[in-house]
Design brief:
The structure holds 2 protein chains of 2 kinds.
Chain A lengths: L3 H28 L7 H8 L5 H14 L5 H11 L4 H12 L4 H8 L4 H41 L7 H17 L10 H29 L3 H10 L15 H17 L1 H9 L6 H17 L2 H10 L7 H8 L3 H41 L12 H25 L6 H12 L3 H9 L5 H26 L6 H5 L7 E2 L2 E2 L7 H23 L4 H11 L17 H12 L1 H15 L11 H27 L7 H76 L5 H33 L7 E4 H11 L1 H7 L2 E6 L5 E4 L1 H18 L6 E9 L2 E8 L33 H11 L4 E5 L5 E8 L2 H7 L1
Helix pairs in contact in A: 1-9, 1-16, 2-9, 2-13, 3-7, 3-14, 3-16, 4-11, 4-13, 6-7, 7-8, 7-16, 7-17, 7-18, 7-20, 8-16, 8-17, 9-14, 9-16, 10-14, 11-18, 11-22, 12-16, 15-16, 16-17, 16-26, 18-22, 20-22, 23-27, 24-25, 24-26, 27-28, 28-32, 29-31, 31-32
Chain B lengths: L3 E5 L3 H13 L3 E5 L2 H10 L4 E5 L7 H10 L7 E6 L4 H9 L4 E4 L4 H11 L4
Parallel strand pairs in B: 1-2, 1-3, 3-4, 4-5
Helix pairs in contact in B: 2-3
Classes of the chains: A mainly alpha, B alpha/beta.
């Protein structure tokens, strides 16, 4: 049989091992080797969630109510899935603003309100104490169980007060563990390592005992469940056995989820102790897996108990003892001890930080008489407050245990705690995602939720513990049946916990929303709301400080709270980062003030830090309204820089356009050069003939008269060609430069066509060309320069005449109305223009004479001039395939406007 | 046997004047009205002098000159390039391609005749 001594020695040995691990972790961290840099350690530390409640309570509950224990694990699983969204954002905020605890987080969000911080701390403390008492009760019960088992043999008497011993040992242990540093945001690497180790121990212990019960005492899962059904207790495995309705299931799951989010110990390990945000991704799947693993044997062990007619919170110990195995009883004991110590350590450390930073320090700092602001070394005071807080928490837990909890099951105590802590969740969630959530809303909601919690859960607990008259449950407060604590406003048919959670969270959320909408938040409140909700958008609020202070003053402040060594280290590191020394007499810039406040916040919380910094910055630094103004300025600056960016992009685009325009200009210049070169060529060619034949005639007076006449004739014709060319070049340059004087008047296009055809009749007859004209309209009123359009017509006719075959040349002219314009078409039976050239022929000097035997004697400018003229009068000109097999040049002119209107 | 001159130009009147001048100077004259005809004439028998217009459609004078020089029999031919574009860059290109003289239109007929004669070691 197990000696009491053995159990106690084992307990101390286990705690010593834990301390050794923590010490090792801290030493490694001090050397710069972090042992908690792995997502596995992070996930295991999250498993601090599984306390003695899980280890003993779940089994006890399952033995009576089957799977009723499950919602407590479904809730955290849901939250784990949401880790990247929820905790991702919380982590960013906590790291950016030096958050030290859940109270600090909430207080900072709602305008660094010390009132709210205090209230949150109060709720947390009141919610945590029953939870601590649950652990004490579990450890004490299990010790009792072991003592009782050894009593028969060794008669060494019962230990007078095992729970008190456990309390004192755990208090000493937590103080040693958690208050070695003052910086609350500095990672407690040793603690995290020890907690992760404890998570392994309790998991291994649970599984070991589970295997022992399932396969040692029974013949596997099938055997246990088979015998359960045989014994007529198979209904335990149905949902009906849980005594929970649908609403209860959803509510319990929600409760567990919210508590998991807001529990101070969970916030401590998940947020404050987090060293790498990426660990969240692993935890998202690994943490639910841990929950699954530790719960696998809950049902088999509980059902084994049911088969053997046993139940209660010590089933994990009772079963091995009943089977005569002291070893597995001890394993179960150690597992339960590890689960309990982990919870107590982390919770008391977390809560003690809150008590010192959000409850005691702000209060002390406000008491003028203490002149705390002027004291030289406050770090010792802060540490003392924390140590006292840890001790007092455990003592209070013990008191609660003695006075109330002894008579209630573990699970009920746990749920009471959960329901209190869950009151913080609306403040966190609204604070994270709703910018309008205000301090007023937070205070109203939290107060209401907490009051309802007290009324619906604590009052009945006090009644059950025998401290209050049961009449209040039956008749309601002041005898009002509407105010019965377990049937508020007549709501009945739910479990007491569901009832309490629905009312308390409902009241909390409602007042939170109403309070936020009904009141205007303070400026600082609005500022903090923006900093929290939009944390991803604005990481640095460095420029939000305009105070006047010296480097030395800031350093002194830090020395007082952090100790000289740390303060000097902070400044040295900053100087290193900046690459220049920080001289004591220098004016401290905004960044340095910010750094000091952040460092201070890590030690004494955001609220106190702000008070302290404000106290040394000369004059009242800046009011929150000024802060907001600066924030607005920052927003404007951002907006301005965005505009600037846009402008510079625009400029870039304009530069591009300019470059293209330049390029185009260069091309145009090149074109002009080419044009001049071409004109020069076109001028020199007839000049060459004229000069050559003139010189030939001069040098050869003896030439026969006929030949002389031939040469003179050439000279005359080339001179004409020269004149035509000069005329065309001048025309074109006048039109292109806009210096052409147009004589615009009303004309009949039919008359113009008729006249042009008449004028070229002689030439056509000479060349034997047959000309046909078709008129589709009797009158073709247009507004144009008649001479110029005549020039176009003559040009097109002579052009056509140049291309028709020497014999059988045919030209067809057509005038038609085409809706709002008239179409003139001149086509010939020449070789035509191949499609790719049809555009090009309207360009200057782009004749297509090369393939022909006789080079047509045009200037190469005719069609270009035609195009300019037609386009000037809003017409179009183009070349297409004609019906005679050759080219057809078409142009249009718009019908005279007055005529169009008349037609309408 | 007299020296042979090939006149190449797409302007009939210029061809006419050059033909007259060269015949008057005592040469045998053959004419071509574009690059293709010129190459055909050269292939039959390279002339002693080639009076070559530069700007002709399809195949210009530069190309004719280049082809002439590529033919071993055409190495001895003296080439006079006639151009209506007096740009230096073109003059250099013509000379680089193997032209002997580069003459800008309009030109002095006496000077042209004298230069052709000089090239052939006459006059």
């Amino acid at each position: 049989m197990i000696g009491t001594l053995v159990a106690l020695l084992l307990s101390f040995a286990y705690l010593a091992l834990l301390f050794g691990i923590a010490n090792y972790g801290d030493r490694s961290a001090a050397r710069g080797d972090t042992l908690i840099g792995s997502p596995l350690v992070y996930t295991l530390s999250l498993a601090v969630y599984c306390s003695a409640w899980t280890f003993f309570g779940s089994v006890g509950l399952a033995a009576e109510a089957g799977v009723a224990f499950l919602p407590i694990y479904l809730g955290p699983t849901v939250v784990a899935v949401l880790f990247p969204i929820l905790h991702g954002k919380i982590l960013t905020i906590a790291k950016a603003y030096g958050i030290t605890s859940i109270a600090d987080f909430i207080a900072a969000r709602y305008g660094k309100s010390s009132l709210l911080g205090g209230l949150v701390t109060l709720v947390t403390v009141l919610g945590t104490i029953p939870y601590i008492s649950l652990q004490l009760k579990a450890v004490a019960n299990s010790l009792d169980t072991i003592f009782a088992a050894s009593l028969d043999q060794q008669a060494n008497g019962p230990v007078p007060e095992p729970a008190l011993i456990v309390t004192l040992v755990l208090a000493a242990f937590s103080i040693l563990f958690g208050t070695r540093h003052i910086d609350a945001t500095e990672h407690h690497e040793g603690m995290v390592l020890a907690i992760a180790f404890e998570s392994l121990v309790k998991l291994a212990a649970f599984i070991a005992v589970g295997l022992f019960v399932t396969y040692g005492m029974f013949d596997g899962f099938g055997d246990i469940f088979g015998r359960l059904v045989e014994g007529g207790r198979g209904e335990l495995l149905t949902f009906g056995a849980t005594g929970l309705g649908y609403v209860d299931w959803v509510t319990y799951t929600l409760l567990a989820a919210l508590a998991f989010l807001a529990l101070p110990r969970q916030f401590q390990v998940a947020v404050i102790e987090n060293v790498d945000k990426d660990h969240l991704r692993t935890a998202t799947w690994m943490f639910p897996l841990y929950l699954l693993a530790i719960n696998i044997f809950v049902l088999p062990v509980a059902m084994a108990g049911a088969v053997l007619g046993r139940g209660g919170d010590t089933l994990m110990l009772d079963l091995p003892l009943a089977a005569g195995s002291q070893t597995f009883a001890l394993v179960a004991y150690i597992g339960g001890l590890s689960a309990a110590t982990a919870m107590v350590i982390v919770a008391t450390i977390a809560v003690s930080t809150m008590i010192s930073n959000d409850l005691v320090m702000p209060a002390l700092l406000r008491v003028e008489r203490l002149r705390l602001g002027q004291r030289h070394d406050l770090s010792a005071l802060v540490l003392a407050i924390r140590r006292a807080a840890i001790f007092l928490q455990l003592l209070a837990g013990y008191a609660f245990f003695r006075l109330v909890a002894e008579r209630i099951e573990l699970v009920s105590i746990g749920l009471i705690s959960f329901a209190a802590i869950a009151q913080l969740a609306p403040l966190i969630l609204f604070g994270l995602f709703w910018r309008q959530a205000s301090l007023t809303g937070a205070l109203w909601g939290l107060t209401a939720g907490f009051a309802v919690w007290f009324f619906t859960l604590i009052l009945p607990a006090l009644v059950f513990a025998g401290w209050l008259d049961p009449a209040i449950l039956e008749e309601g407060l002041f005898g009002l049946s509407l105010l019965r604590p377990q049937a508020l406003f007549g709501l009945e048919g739910l479990t007491p916990v569901t009832h309490a959670v629905l009312w308390s969270l409902g009241a909390n959320t409602l007042l939170m929303v109403v309070g936020s909408l009904a009141t205007r938040p303070s400026d600082l409140g609005r500022l903090q709301a923006i900093l929290f909700v939009d944390v991803e958008q604005r990481q640095s609020s460095t420029r939000l400080w305009r105070g006047e202070t010296r480097v030395a003053a800031l350093q002194d402040l830090l020395v007082r709270f952090l100790g000289r060594e740390r303060a000097v280290r902070v400044f040295a590191r900053e100087a290193l980062r900046r690459g220049r020394s920080l001289r004591a007499g220098d004016r401290a810039d905004a960044e340095l003030v910010q750094l000091a406040e952040r460092q201070l916040a890590r030690a004494i919380g955001a609220t106190s830090a702000r008070l302290m910094v404000a106290s040394i910055v000369r004059g009242e630094v800046i009011g929150p309204d000024a802060l907001l103004e600066i924030l607005d300025e920052t927003s404007q600056a951002i907006e301005y820089s965005q505009k600037l960016e846009q402008k510079s992009r625009e400029l870039e685009r304009l530069t591009d356009e300019l470059r293209r325009a330049n390029e185009r200009l260069r091309q145009l210049d090149q074109l002009k050069d080419d044009f001049i070169a071409t004109v020069s060529h076109e001028l020199r060619t007839p000049l060459t003939s004229i000069r050559s034949f003139s010189e030939i005639l001069l040098d050869n007076p003896e030439l026969p008269a006929e030949q002389q006449r031939h040469f003179v004739d050439i000279i005359a014709r080339e001179s004409q060609r020269l004149t035509r060319l000069i005329d065309d070049v001048l025309d074109l340059s006048k039109i292109e430069s806009g210096r052409m004087e147009w004589e615009v008047a009303d004309h009949d296009l039919r008359r113009i066509v008729e006249e042009a055809v008449g004028a070229s009749e002689g030439l056509m007859r000479e060349s034997g060309i047959q000309v046909t004209v078709e008129y589709g309209v009797r009158r073709a009123p247009v507004r144009c320069d008649g001479d110029r359009i005549t020039q176009v017509m003559l040009n097109l006719l002579s052009n056509a005449a140049k291309f028709v075959p020497v014999r059988g040349g045919r030209i067809r002219v057509e005038l038609r109305g085409l809706g709002s314009e008239f179409l003139v078409r001149v086509e010939d039976n020449g070789p035509g223009v191949p499609p790719p050239m049809r555009e090009a022929i309207f360009e200057k000097f782009r004749q297509i004479g090369g393939s022909m035997k006789d080079k047509p004697h045009g200037t190469g400018l005719g069609l270009a001039i035609c195009r300019e003229i037609v386009q000037h009068f809003d017409g179009r000109i183009w070349c297409e395939e004609g019906q005679l097999g050759g080219a057809a040049i078409c142009f249009t002119l718009p019908v005279r406007e007055a005529e169009l209107r008349a037609a309408e | 046997m007299g020296k042979r001159v090939l006149v190449v130009d797409d302007e009939p009147n210029i061809v006419l004047s050059l033909e007259f001048l060269m015949k008057k100077a005592g040469f045998e004259v053959e004419v071509a009205r574009n690059g293709q005809e010129a190459l055909e004439a050269i292939a039959r028998q390279p002339p002693d002098v080639l009076l070559l217009d530069v700007m002709m459609p399809e195949m210009d004078g530069f190309e004719v000159c280049e082809r002439l020089r590529a033919d071993p029999r055409g190495r001895a031919t003296k080439v006079v390039m006639l151009t209506a574009r007096g740009r230096d860059s073109e003059r250099q290109r013509g000379l680089a391609l193997g032209a002997d003289v580069y003459v800008t239109k309009p030109f002095s007929t006496r000077e042209l005749v004298a230069r052709v004669k000089a090239m052939l070691g006459e006059g």
